[in-house]
Amino acid sequence: MTTEATNILRPIIPSKIAESIKNLREQGWVDDDFFNFWRYDEESAEARLLYHFFRNNRVTFAAAIINSYSVQEMQQ
């Protein structure tokens, strides 16, 4: 019987999204908070940004929150 190693790739997210996740975690957000949309207060630009990213990239967003992620640097 052979076994194959399974590679789990980390999702690649934009640096602006990674920065928002980091800042909200520093404010005390935990994994569950990112999936409870009542936390996405209209007063928080970072939370709104993440909410819109989630709406368009659900699987990537969930994997980034639950596991880890790589950052795609924005080219200027």
UniProtKB/TrEMBL annotation:
Instruction: Give the species.
Output: Paenibacillus qinlingensis
Q: Tell me what this protein is called.
A: Uncharacterized protein
